[in-house]
């Protein structure tokens, strides 16, 4: 369904506005300008109108309206998706920002989270009970988008992906009907929601399993750039035997002007090891010693801290409004030839704000069968994200081409496809996020639950 097929005029839109509890924002309204903007400043699109839903009933009303008018929909939860899937030109945006309530049942160890909440909202509610669930690497990320794409994060190797902790989802279908999807109710939809990257309905509430996570042993160790090859080899050797309580990341980044680093390296390119141990914090230092004790670092920061505090540590590196472009490579090995290809590109980005992140999976992520959900990358041992970032639009093309080029340089070692949460363009979301068998299964389910393609992102990139 193309955006041009919708014919909703002013009077027709007014009927929607009159039916909803929340406001309907249209061009010319100052709030429209604010809400059409998403986290990625490179996305500049203008929906026909923005339905600011006050509750699940508003969502159902707006979806029924869009179906009747043959008007494609987009869904804004946290608005953090780098490809800007939350907003398209000429469509109706459902803004779930007001649906951000979080309810904790500490005794049952579950949390119910509305579709517009951010992960920092979840952490704030669960941490007083010493509980948490996997919620990405940045606390400003929206719960909905991250979960529907799979949901890697600092707790994943011990607790599984976000989707592995999803117990149920309240969904408004493309015809406006409301249902609850779980392992024993609408199981095919539940399978698709867990890693299918959206397009099946509007999830107004997620129910997650919680784990005992209060304090973690976490931090970062900064090394000079020339140490990167040896550190990558050490990371490669440690990852297969790493205890599942530990999640590690190597980041090629620019040294911040922080007191724990020598002034002469401020603003210089470095490689940093980030780590989070979510088991007994006292055991963490010993368990991770082979890596956190590696070499002669420039400086280090961290220790035992609340998980919620660690989860916000890297928020400063993902500010709203900057121009971002991401892409990702899924890898079976980090051999020496790959390291030789990676390091020069990661060391010399076109903007100091660009990063390259090297992650390992395994642990609880790999414990489930490959077809347990629509997330198809759980058996991969490594993935590398190219994070292009600039503060100005003038630099965006250059950082985008650098990120694409870095991914191309890793292609000889990479699997086909990419994780949905790191797909930088709509066409990648359509074509690269699942293997052929999974993609066919998802397409069949979309035809079942959204036969008119109301919720499918338009290919306009």
Biggest sheet, open or closed, and with what strands and sense? Answer: 7 strands, antiparallel
Helix content: 25-40%
> Unreliable runs, pLDDT <50, ≥5 residues?
1-6
CATH architecture of the largest domain: 3-Layer(aba) Sandwich
Q: How would you briefly describe this protein structure?
A:
The chain is an alpha+beta fold and 461 residues long. It has three domains: 10-95, Uridine Diphospho-n-acetylenolpyruvylglucosamine Reductase, domain 2, CATH 3.30.43; 102-212, 2-Layer Sandwich (Uridine Diphospho-n-acetylenolpyruvylglucosamine Reductase, domain 3), CATH 3.30.465.10; 215-428, 3-Layer(aba) Sandwich (Vanillyl-alcohol Oxidase, Chain A, domain 3). The protein has helices at 10-19, 30-36, 56-69, 119-126, 143-148, 156-159, 187-193, 228-238, 281-287, 289-292, 307-311, 336-347, 364-367, 396-409, 426-431, 436-449, and strands at residues 24-25, 49-52, 73-76, 92-95, 102-105, 110-114, 131-132, 166-172, 178-182, 202-209, 211-212, 215-224, 246-254, 269-277, 299-306, 323-331, 355-360, 382-390.
Description:
It is a single chain. This protein has about 450 residues and is of the alpha+beta class. The protein has helices at about 10-20, 30-35, 55-70, 120-125, 145-150, 155-160, 185-195, 230-240, 280-285, 290, 305-310, 335-345, 365, 395-410, 425-430, 435-450; strands at about 25, 50, 75, 90-95, 100-105, 110-115, 130, 165-170, 180, 200-210, 210, 215-225, 245-255, 270-275, 300-305, 325-330, 355-360, 380-390. Strands 15-12-14-13-17-18-16 form a 7-stranded antiparallel sheet. A 5-stranded antiparallel sheet has the order 5-6-10-8-9. Strand 5 (about 100-105) and strand 6 form a beta hairpin. Helix 8 (about 230-240) packs across helix 12. The radius of gyration is 22 Å and the shape is globular. The two termini are about 15 Å apart. The model is unreliable at about 1-5 (pLDDT under 50).
